[in-house]
Specification:
It is a single chain. The protein is an alpha+beta fold. It has a single domain (57-386), classed as DD-peptidase/beta-lactamase superfamily (Beta-lactamase, 3-Layer(aba) Sandwich). It is 36% helix and 15% strand. The chain has helices at residues 2-13, 16-53, 100-112, 122-126, 141-145, 158-164, 203-217, 221-230, 260-265, 300-311, 365-370, 373-382, and strands spanning 59-66, 69-80, 85-86, 93-94, 239-240, 255-257, 273-274, 279-281, 296-298, 330-333, 336-343, 348-354, 356-357.
């Protein structure tokens, strides 16, 4: 009887108030552990950035986001090597081929709105500006989106490389939006294959798609990107270099590796300073030579939030994303290297920008490192934010 009485008394003593107090105690004991884990991962990310710039690289800026927003962002190193100016998370980087994602979204939105049929060809819409480009009369817009058009990529032209990145470049010259297309006319380059029969990444595809946006809307591509993507997502640090004027001068300093191969194939522009470690200072050079396919400047935070919104179906129907899944996740242009990775299982996206370029520099240790650090060092740590 005593045992039963004690059980009854114990049962009667567990009041709703006591249950609430116990729950609060348990939650209080759990939250600090989670917060401690977050701090530990943050510390690992910061240490990773310091190890990356020790290679040496000028500077790096990184962001991680999930569907709730920004998870972490950080930076290390220098924007300006000459004055040792520290890099910040607000510095703008050239994102190169990652610009394609923005162009692709606008085209997919226009198609969903009935302004264009993705089975149309560039020639049927643009006419003369692409009439002398092989496959422009055969490839569909969908094939341009997924890089199966077979249209030659203008950055593979040696003359463009000298004009757009090297010895014959005017760093302050603003290229016309269709200017890069003159390097891929059929008298200089044949198509890389039959339209629709094979994948071949081509910057020309998205240059042409950008021009199609302007033809269809009667406006400017940069305005369409802003009104359809940047403003709705409140991304205030993303702009088309040369075609827009950022509200503040916060473009990061940039540097490029001038190997013997780069010098012989591309050449060093006389207006670029040649410094230590074979780096040329390309800071402030117009990115308009990369055209509509590569002239966007942004921060890792803006790009990460854009990418999460894209994968969440906030910009286009998720089923239509397969059209742009073949876009670049790694980009190299003059003075910049950029990476983005969707971690599908973890529900995360990570972006990383370095203010150093190695494109056209051939095989070398720094180029190999810039092609591998993201996957080998940053992604394994970033995945921990999902645990």
């Amino acid at each position: 009887m005593r045992t039963e009485t004690r059980r009854d008394n114990l049962g009667s003593s567990i009041t709703p108030k006591l249950i609430f107090t116990l729950c609060c105690f348990l939650l209080a004991s759990i939250v600090p552990v989670s917060a401690q884990d977050q701090l530990q991962i943050d510390r690992q990310m910061n240490e990773a950035l310091e190890s990356i710039i020790a290679n040496p690289l000028p500077g790096i800026s990184v962001a991680v986001a999930n569907r709730d927003g920004l998870v972490w962002s950080g930076s290390a190193g220098f924007s300006n090597l000459e004055d040792r100016q520290a890099i910040s998370q607000n510095h703008l980087f050239g994102i190169g081929d990652l610009s394609n994602q923005f162009v692709g979204v606008v085209i997919l939105q226009l198609a969903a709105e009935g302004f264009v049929d993705l089975n149309d060809t560039p020639l049927s819409i643009l006419g003369d500006p692409v009439a002398n480009i092989e496959n422009a009369d055969k490839a569909t817009l969908y094939q341009l989106l997924n890089h199966t058009s077979g249209i030659f990529s203008w950055d593979k032209d040696d003359i463009w490389a000298r004009h757009g990145r090297g010895v014959q470049m005017n760093p302050k010259y603003h290229w016309a939006k269709d200017e890069v297309l003159k390097y891929i006319t059929r008298d200089s380059h044949a198509a890389t294959g039959i339209a629709g029969e094979g994948y071949a990444y081509s910057k020309s595809n998205y240059t042409i798609l950008g021009l199609i946006v302007e033809k269809l809307t009667g406006g400017l591509l940069e305005d369409e990107v802003r009104e359809r993507i940047l403003v709705p997502l409140n991304l205030t640090n993303t702009h088309y270099d040369s075609y827009e004027v950022p509200p503040y001068n916060n473009l990061v300093g940039s540097y490029h590796l001038a190997t013997d191969q780069f010098i012989s194939k591309v050449g060093i522009n006389a207006k670029f300073e040649f410094g230590e470690d074979r780096l040329i200072n390309t800071s402030g050079a117009s990115l308009s030579s990369e055209g509509l396919a590569g002239a966007i400047i942004s921060t890792p935070r803006d790009l990460a939030l854009f990418a999460i919104a894209l994968k969440s179906g906030k910009l286009v129907d998720i089923n239509s994303l397969k059209a742009i899944e073949q876009n670049a996740a790694h980009s190299e242009i003059l003075g910049f290297t950029s990476d983005i990775q969707w971690l599908e299982e973890e529900g995360l996206v990570i972006t990383s920008f370095v203010n150093m370029g190695t494109v056209n520099s051939g095989e070398n240790e720094i180029n190999d490192y810039l092609n591998s650090y993201f996957e080998k060092i940053l992604i394994p740590i970033a995945k921990k934010y999902a645990k």
